[in-house]
Amino acid sequence: MITTSSSAGIPATLLVIAKAPIAGFAKTRLTPDFSPREAAQLAAAALLDTLRAVRHSGVRHRVVAWTGDLTRAERSDELSTALAEFELIPQRGETFGQRLANAHADAARAGLPVLQIGMDTPQAGPALLAVSATLLLECGDTVLGPAADGGWWALGLTDPRPARTLAEVPMSTAHTGDLTREALSRCGCRVRRLPVLTDVDTADDALTVAREHHGHFSRAVEQLRHHAPA
């Protein structure tokens, strides 16, 4: 994959944590409301929206930390084309927290502050990502975007070393956001708050986000709802 760095744009790295949208591998909490394949189709749509938002954010360097077999993914051809515009690095680590910490360390090798997001917030458009990256640069420290379910959707660091603490934070709980903020504060970070977003974990989340967002994801939700049995 190409390395997308230039002298133009916001001097930061936008890091996307992503997994191949394969049935039974991605977005498993969307079942049984959606079938495993439908859940993977929604994951693919959300990722396509996210990659597009990153490409149009004006952030200088774009990285995807990837896991899974792209050839088996839903919408694999579209994703392959989109990912060609990113630096692709493998996820490393046993737990999700370890993979997050390692991805921050790997992305920081470009020498720029890192704003990390996932593939669960397709409504996070280019303007929000640009504002979030700019706030990270202005505060010169740390930004954290809370999720409505108590987690978080974005983490920006000017120094990658505090990311190591993510390996010790319980993930996917109603207190993950607060625990992450506390852990970062213990590392000496002054954490600035980004807007609260709903991340797509459940079927209700998917419907909520589809109502407030227009893109691949909202169209995929509408199509699946249209074809759902009465």
Topology (elements, then pairings):
Layout: E1 10-19, H1 36-55, E2 59-67, H2 76-83, E3 87-90, H3 96-107, E4 114-117, H4 126-139, E5 142-146, E6 152-157, H5 176-186, E7 191-193, H6 203-212, H7 216-227
Parallel strand pairs: 1-2, 1-4, 2-3, 5-7
Antiparallel strand pairs: 4-6, 5-6
InterPro entries: Nucleotide-diphossugar_trans, Trfase_1_rSAM/seldom-assoc
Enzyme class: transferase
EC number: 2.7.7.68
**CA(first)-CA(last) distance:** 44 Å
Shape estimate: globular
| SSE ordering | EHEHEHEHEEHEHH
β-strand amount: 15-25%
CATH class: Alpha Beta
CATH topology: Spore Coat Polysaccharide Biosynthesis Protein SpsA, Chain A
User: Unreliable stretches, pLDDT < 50, 5 or more residues?
Assistant: none
How many β-strand stretches?
A: 7
User: What class, by secondary structure content?
Assistant: alpha/beta
Tally of separate domains: 1
Report the CATH superfamily: Spore Coat Polysaccharide Biosynthesis Protein SpsA, Chain A
Helix content: 25-40%
Number of DSSP helical runs = 7
- Name the CATH architecture: Alpha-Beta Complex
Instruction: Please list the strands of the largest sheet in the order they lie side by side.
Output: 3-2-1-4-6-5-7
The largest sheet, given as strand count, sense and whether it forms a barrel, is:
7 strands, mixed
